[in-house]
Amino acid sequence: MAETTVEFQSDVLMDLDKSEQGDLRTEEMLVNMGPQHPATHGVLRVVLRTDGEMILEAVPHIGYLHRCAEKIGENVPPYQFIPYTDRMDYLAGMNNNEAFAIAVERLCGIEIPERAKYIRVIFAELNRIASHLVSFGCYGLDMGAFTPFLYAFREREMILDLFEATCGARLTYSYITVGGVHDDVPERFFDVLREFLDYFEPKIPEYNDLLSFNHIFVKRTANVGVISGADAMAWGLTGPCLRASGVNWDLRKSIPYENYDRFAFDIPVGRPGGSDGIPESVVVGDCWSRYFVRMCEMQQSCRVIRQAMEQVSEGPVQAAKVKNLKLPADETYVEIENPRGQLGFYVQGDGSMIPSRVKARGPSFCNISIMNHVGRGCLLADIPAIIGSIDIVMGEVDR
Amino acid sequence: MAPEEICEILRREFGEAIVDTAMSANRPYAVVEAGRWAEVAAFLRDDPRMGFNMLQCVTAIDLLEDNKLAAVYDLFSFPVAGADEPCPKLRHHFAVRVVVDRGDPHVPTVSHLWPTADWHEREAFDLMGIVFDGHPNLERILLPEDWEGHPLRKDYEFPVEYHGIPATTEYQLTNPKH
């Protein structure tokens, strides 16, 4: 294998002078991390070329969950493909349904009712919170903190109860369909939701006390796996991973879809350490920033939901004419902001009910492709920190 | 910038290399000659009027009736901005289609321009069989290395078994056009 020059990021090695470094060097070793490794968040396999504790190369191998969902999309009408989108990013089923539904609606020129738009926003944001809670909890686990996981799942459970009350499913919803949502929310839904938000919002500072500003956690994640803004864009990173690198870009704000333009909310962006109570050692674009952007986003999602609840009015939740939908001979590519980044759907119709091509651009797929670039030169123990901070869902990487 | 203007500039710069343009309301695109695609791509990325600093997606499509394959590139331009200012201006979207023969599908790689193309191109190679010339590591990415054929092609025949594991149900065997 070709010799790669690697610049070591670790302080430990920097402190040693060259001769001592030479003594520490051992021979290169290939380590297979995964596919059954608890810190790889599913069936990701990373082949690590190591020199002692140092990573010379970290090549991700994917495909263990590949189901060729795109082929299935070419064989069924759009409303039958919606359940398959659930199974891509299975932690954010609502957002996936929404992305595909919007793509088909744009292609066919369907305008959905106002109430459906608001319900979609509410559910997409709730799912964003649920997804970030899993991310937060699991990241704690990766870093050796067990308790935050239990806290995160306690709150996520309440969101799932709300989903279950509405559509009967707790993980694979298929609730948001082409033309709106398939049923109206149950009675008293907004009251329960308001109660949940009142309960949940004060919990976020609690999480921050528990994990975000924990000294050990900061030590493990700050200034580790730094991705610059330019790198993030070149590698197609989106979502919290891009914003943590200091790029202020969120489709909900930048190119609003649904009715996101009617809400006031902020876009959390990675900030350097020392400002606004952020730990000194934090650098823009490191693991801690990526993690913390998600924590801030949960707060903003609560704001959006509250405003949506104020604005929503009575009315139908399904556009009238979506039964037996014929797709025009045209194509469209739509991206929306998922919890993990920009989920894109390319849909091409040919005049029949079944699309001739469906393509999903998974944010996790693009985000994890930077793994080798960022993992090089890190310590072995930093690899779980980096994978966890990128927050991948293998169902979506492999599709 | 409107897609019409982008096409206009591309035509002026590259003439014959812009084979066709399609200005559908949903998603306008230009068809670029495969041989000059890398050149056009570099222009799209580096020219200040274009500034497509992000490759969103590479989609491989099968145009079976024309006996062609196509790689579709979705490009987006968002200016690099600091933490406090939301991204202004540019933010335009454009799509490019590179059409090649089914029998000999060669498209030059753009992974040196947008590193994200690396995996997208590997996926297009894996599932549709488009060969990206100059790609640093053109291997299957989602399917096993010894998989035969490219499943997203319209004339793909499903394997009956894979290493002794049945891959097709009896129903599919008796009803091939399911």
Give an overview in words.
The complex is a heterodimer of chains A (399) and B (178). Chain A has 399 residues and is mainly alpha-helical. Chain A has one domain (69-366, 384-398): Cytochrome-c3 Hydrogenase, chain B. Chain A is built from 18 helices and 8 strands. Chain A has helices spanning 11-15, 18-24, 69-73, 78-86, 93-108, 114-142, 147-167, 189-200, 203-212, 215-221, 229-234, 240-244, 251-254, 287-311, 363-368, 371-375, 382-390, 394-398, and strands at 28-33, 45-51, 54-61, 176-177, 180-181, 331-338, 341-348, 357-361. Chain A has a 3-stranded antiparallel beta sheet with strand order 1-2-3. In chain A, strand 6 and strand 7 form a beta hairpin. In chain A, helix 4 packs antiparallel against helix 5 (93-108). Chain B contains 4 helices and 9 strands, in the order H-E-E-H-E-E-E-E-H-E-E-E-H. Chain B has helices at 3-14, 37-46, 117-128, 170-174, and strands at 18-22, 29-32, 54-63, 68-76, 93-101, 106-108, 131-133, 161-162, 165-166. Chain B is elongated and about 55 Å long. In chain B, 37% of the residues are buried. The chains are: A mainly alpha (399), B alpha/beta (178). The A-B interface holds A 62-63, 66, 68, 70-71, 74, 106-107, 229-230, 233-236, 246-249, 253-255, 267, 269-271, 284, 330-333, 335, 342, 344, 346, 348, 357, 359, 361, 365-366, 369-370, 373, 398-399 and B 24, 26-27, 53-57, 59, 61-62, 72, 74, 78, 80-87, 91, 95, 114-116, 118-119, 127, 140-144, 151-152.
How would the global form of chain B be characterised? elongated
- The CATH topology name of chain A reads Cytochrome-c3 Hydrogenase, chain B
Structural shape of chain A: globular
Binned strand content of chain B: 25-35%
CATH architecture of chain B: 2-Layer Sandwich
Low-confidence stretches of chain B: 82-88
Rg over C-alpha atoms of chain A, rounded to the nearest angstrom: 22 Å
Q: Going across the biggest sheet of chain B, name each strand in turn.
A: 1-2-5-4-3
Sheet having the most strands of chain B:
5 strands, mixed
Number of strands of chain B: 9
